[in-house]
Amino acid sequence: MTFRLVSEKLKSKKVALLLLLAVFLLIALLLTTTPEGTAIATSEVKQGEFAVSITVAGELRATNSRTLVTPRTRFGNLQIVYLVPEGTTVKAGDAVVRFATTEVDKNISDKESELSTLKADFEKLKADQLSQMSDLEASLKNAELAYEQAKLQVEKMKFEAEVLRKDAEINQEKSKISYEQAQRKIESKKIVDKSEQEKLLLKIKQVESDLARARADKEQLTLKAPLPGLVVYEMNWSTGRKISVGDSPWPGMSIISLPDLSHMQVVTNVNEVDVSKIKKGQKAKVKLDAFPDRQFVATVNSVGTIGQQRDRNNPIKTFEVILDIEGIDPILKPGMTTSNEIIMETIPDAIYVPLESVFEKEGKVLVYKMDGSRPIPTPVEVGAKNGNFVVIKDGLKAGEKVTLRDPTSKEPATSEDPTKEAKL
Asked: Which end of the chain, N or C, is less surrounded by CB atoms within 10 Å?
């Protein structure tokens, strides 16, 4: 009987303890929820190195890039007969585009045939001139000998009758005239021969020049890569699609771009409010939108000095900022979109919390610090911020917890920019 009474008392105490524990858990649950009964998300106050930065969108491009265009030739419209596949990485000197060469090949063949004929005519002319000159030189020699004989005859007739002496002198004069005439013929022949040769040589040089130009034209019909790079087809605006085999682009039209993938950079646009904080040489973190798990280090290369209004409905101007990416990675391709965190300053030891934890109430900046399970409004002094966090100069300690939304607000949590809620 006594044992049974003790057992009943123990059961009553156990039930009372269980009820007390349930009440305690209910109170704790009420203290850790908003007035509407919704659980509060919290974040721990962090301490450590803090990067003051801004995050902007951008697009990849090659630092160095060359565009190949349709050559200007004398052969009218050109037609593409070969294109290296787009996306191919080529070396300097590789052929990337070829145009049809039918017309220029015919021109080269005609000029080669004409040149061959002219050279043969030139050789024949020289042979004919040489033969004629030999005849003239022989005639000159005979005339010279006849003149010498006539002079000797005059000497012999010195003591002969005057009639005979006179006849010898006449023969001497005739021989002299013939000799001098033969000399003049040779001199004239030399002048004429030289003129004829020069005239034919001029024709040969003209045809050689035409042939060299035609061969150069043919060389132009093969476009070669001036530097290593990735083949990117340009748009053919007359067809509304990218360049392809069979197209007839106009002279000077862009055919292929060759970005050098060994040096890549990001083109971004920074709001006029923040651009004054951006300086050449500052570091940045670049993430690819297509591969968010990949991050690259970059350096600010240049900051634009002329603002541009990108949206006619938005008066705020932006300035172009160029980031040079460090290193080489085959995943980096021109045209990829990026998210870029430009680090303007680094604070070595800072207390900081998420931007979502800071609010403005009645002209005061505050956070809701967790006191056990209860959120307590706590005034704070804020400092520098970046895209996700803000420095707390006074009011919090590392390790404490703060809410990620205003627990007194009846509005549901949103993803709006928390800087609209607090004056940071």
From this structure: N
CA 258/CA 73 separation, integer angstroms: 23
- For 177-209, the pLDDT digits (tens) are 888 898 999 899 899 999 999 999 999 999 999
Q: Are residue 191 and residue 227 in the same domain, yes or no? A: no
- Nearest alpha-carbon partner for 55 in 391, 326, 323: 323
- 270 and 379 within one domain: yes
End-to-end Cα spacing for the chain? 74
Structural domain containing residue 273: 42-60+261-420
Q: Say if residues 356 and 362 touch (Cβ distance below 8 Å).
A: no
Instruction: Say whether both 228 and 212 belong to one domain.
Output: no
Encode pLDDT of 287-308 as tens digits. Answer: 999 999 999 999 999 999 888 8
Q: Which two tokens stand for residue 263?
A: 């040096």
Say how many residues make up the chain: 424
3-class SS of residue 68:
strand
Q: Name the helix (H) or strand (E) containing 17.
A: helix 2-31
Q: How many domains does the chain have?
A: 3
Do 358 and 365 form a contact (C-beta atoms < 8 A)? yes
What is d(CA 49, CA 349) in angstroms, rounded to the nearest whole number?
A: 5
CA distance 323 to 265: 5
Q: Which helix (H) or strand (E) holds 412?
A: none
Tell me the per-residue pLDDT of 101-118, one tens digit each, with 9 for 90 and over.
999 999 999 999 999 999
- Structural contact between residues 1 and 344, judged by C-beta atoms closer than 8 angstroms: no
Across 41-50, 52-61, 97-106, 312-321, least confident range: 312-321
- 200 and 120 share a domain? yes
Identify the H or E element spanning 341.
strand 337-354
Domain membership flag for residue 9: no
Residue type, 411: E
For residue 412, count other CB atoms closer than 10 A to its CB. Answer: 8
What whole-number distance in Å separates Cα of residue 332 and Cα of residue 286? 11
Cα dihedral 284/290/291/297 (nearest 10): -20
Q: Are residues 169 and 249 in the same domain?
A: no
> Both tokens of residue 256?
């292929």
Share the mean pLDDT of the chain: 85
- For 246, the token pair is 């069979």
Q: Which of 304, 321, 318 is nearest to 271 (CA)?
A: 318
- Cβ–Cβ under 8 Å, residues 82 and 244: no
